[in-house]
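Predict the 3D structure for this chain.
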Amino acid sequence: MQTLMTIAAMTTLAAALAGCGKVDPQLTADQMTMTDATCAPAELEKIADADVRKAFAARCERRAQLRQPGQ
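Done. Predicted structure below.
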């Protein structure tokens, strides 16, 4: 009976820790280095996580808008 309780406790702990593994995509995108090379479409496609890719592409778009003269 004690072994069963230990296994149940370990399983619950593992499930709880597994749920904490998702990283905020915006935070991850904010930590990535933004250059002309990393903002290239081919490089954006290399980002595996779709949410991070979308957030980083949005940062690249804002960067491009800020760099345009006369606006």
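The chain has a mean pLDDT of 82.
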